[in-house]
Amino acid sequence: MELLWQEVSLNARQIRERLYPRATKAQHGTVQRLLSRLEEKGFVFRDSSQAVLSFSALVSREEYAGGQLEALAAKLTGGSLAPLITHLVEGRRISGEEVKRLRKVLDEHAENGGQS
Amino acid sequence: MIDLLFQIGLSNAIIALLLAMIALVVEKTARWPMIAHLLWLLVFIKLLTPAFMPIPLDFLPAYFHNPAPVMMDAQLGQYAISGLPELAAQEPASSVWASIAAALRIALPWLAGLWLLGSLFVLMRSLWHVYRFHKALRAVSKSAPPALIAIAEGIGERFGLKTLPEIIVTSASISPMVWWVGRRVRIALPAALVDELDQEKIRWILAHELAHVRRLDHVVRWVEWLACVCFWWNPLVWWARHHLRANEELCCDALVLESLRPAPQTYAESLLTAIECLACPVIRPPAVASEINSGGILERRLKMIVSKTPKLKISYWMLGIVLLSALIILPISFATRGDANAAPAAVAVNPIGDASLSINALLDTDEQTEEAEESNRELIERRLAEAVESGEMTSEEADRRLAFCESIDYRISQPIDIEAIKAELELAVEKGEITREAADRKLECCIKLKNQDCVPPSIEEIRACLEEAVRNGEITREEAEKRIQFCESIQGQACAEIDLEAVRAEVQAAVESGDLTQQEAEQALKELQQRIENSRFPAADCGAECRRSCAECDVDCEHGCAGS
Fold it and tell me: Which residue of A has its CA nearest to B226?
């Protein structure tokens, strides 16, 4: 990811050369696997418009780090041990239905309060 | 050591469970979230505090810690007669308990190891997560805008916070949170919230976070963490954690409402808007699936905030009661009957051992006889004193045991008095300590012993007797082994070559050098012989062994070997 943030887009060979200066066949496979994993996660975009496949970063450095933080936060509030206090969203995203229900609770009481 | 740890851990867990039940009941009433929170916190504290006031409980059998010594068969003569009162008092427990306890005793070190490993694993894993999160947080966040900090300062003053936590804003889409790792407490807000919410609403979000800091909830997190590391195997901690946090939130909301007096609707609206903002779908790859609702606690909170019922009117006497009960409950633990009796039981078995020590001493030179006896008594006294000091028995108990040991010692040196024994047995039967048949059997055996008529049981017979006792669950295998070894050792001693010639020679030398008069010398020799005869353990089969040694040493078989 670091490489892709530094340069706009690279092809597989360039990536391999920079990651593993003494390139061998084995490392080529490693790089391919790494790239496909990153692509699956949505961090990397594979551009097949040219003859040579090139890769570019889909997320900025900050976004990526933020994603890491969120993942960690989710892990920590999901029951893992940590000195973390969150009170609104306990690590899992709250569903739309839940929000609607909460809105209803408030509205009902607002009405009652208005009447009395 | 392991026993003690397990006992503390187990009894702490039991008491903590009871506390949790009470906390749950209080929580369900929904009237006093503060008391409920305190009770849940107490659960965790109880799990962690070492107990130093044991309450003896009889429900765990003594087998757990000390196999009850069984009353040996009447054939063992005098010792069965005198009744070793403590041994008689302990009924042989059922074999089911005994086998469970035995299995547990074997498994205990393994369980302890597993416990420790589990704790280490949980510790490492959680610390690793904490470290990563801390780093990640610092990487993507920056200090909050001055306006926000000003608001926070104002609220902090109202709450009476000495140091204001560091307010940071992070680009990540996380829930507003309090994070305390390292020196400073941090309150992290997501940038999305800061951008979208107006100042009024942000203020109440901040207020809630600061309320957490005011109530020292960030410290409670670490207590909770420690309890979970130590008691990871106990589902209670994970369950209690959930409830603790739920009540915490309610208390914080209540604190905000009471201290800052916002309009309840406004406060609730701030929370809900924040939730709606955070619930927006984001373009980033989702970290976790989002099916489940984040907990009925949000609903409870909102309802509590807007409800008209008066809340948080905590009476101080109620708080006082809870704290007082905490003071009482925290130090106690349960102890099994076995612990209370462990030392005495060991000492009760010892009279035989100590008696054999006496005999050993007798078989040495007679000059040292008196001192040896003294030192034996000293030894017993010392052990008893230690036991009294460590609180394992009372001093009355110790005195009783000392008197008992002395009586044993006395009996060894006295000839068998059938009348006295008969009287004792009658008394025991009347008191119901032994049955008529058992008493008759014992009396018969004593008479035979006195008349040197009965053949003392051989080692094989004793072994068979013990085997049966083990089968019936009266004693454990370990105890049986111990007794066999003891009998074998006695046999060895009893048939140790008593070099009467050497003793005679020594005594003669003493007479010649003027240390003893001739009369004293003869008296001493006679006494020694008498003692040896009377102290002959019926458990030993001198039989063939003694005959052989009698032939080897050219001494008359005056040793009183029965069965020759």
Answer: A81
Give CA–CA dist B149/B143, Å, rounded.
9
pLDDT of B206 strictly over 90 = yes
User: Which of B545, B25, B177 has its CA nearest to residue A72?
Assistant: B177
Q: What pLDDT score was predicted for residue B334? A: 61
The whole-angstrom distance between B134's CA and the closest CA on chain A is 9
* Chain B neighbors of A66, CB-CB under 8 A: 140, 170-173, 284
Residues found in chain B: 564
B/e letters for B394-405, b = 16+ CB within 10 Å, e = fewer, are eeebbebbbebb
Distance CA B166, CA B188 (A): 8
B116–chain A nearest CA distance, Å? 17
In degrees and rounded to multiples of 5, residue B171 shows phi and psi of -75, -20
Lowest mean pLDDT among A39-53, B123-137, B216-230, B300-314: B300-314
Q: Does B306 touch chain A (CB under 8 A)?
A: yes
Any A CB within 8 A of B217 CB? yes
How many residue contacts between A and B have a Cβ separation below 8 Å? 187
pLDDT tens per residue across span B391-446: 777 888 778 777 766 766 555 555 667 788 888 888 888 888 778 887 887 788 77
ipTM over 0.90: no
What is d(CA B486, CA B536) in angstroms, rounded to the nearest whole number? Answer: 15
Question: At residue B517, does pLDDT exceed 50?
Answer: yes
In the chain, the amino acid numbered B353 is G
Check residue B220 and give its pLDDT. Answer: 92
Taking a C-beta distance cutoff of 8 angstroms, is the pair B358, B369 a contact?
Answer: no
- Give me Rg for the CA atoms of chain B: 38
Answer for the pair B141, B171: CB distance below 8 angstroms, yes or no: yes
The answer to whether the CB atoms of B275 and A102 lie below 8 A apart is yes
Average pLDDT over residues A30-39: 83
> How far is the C-alpha of B214 from the C-alpha of B375, rounded, in Å?
66
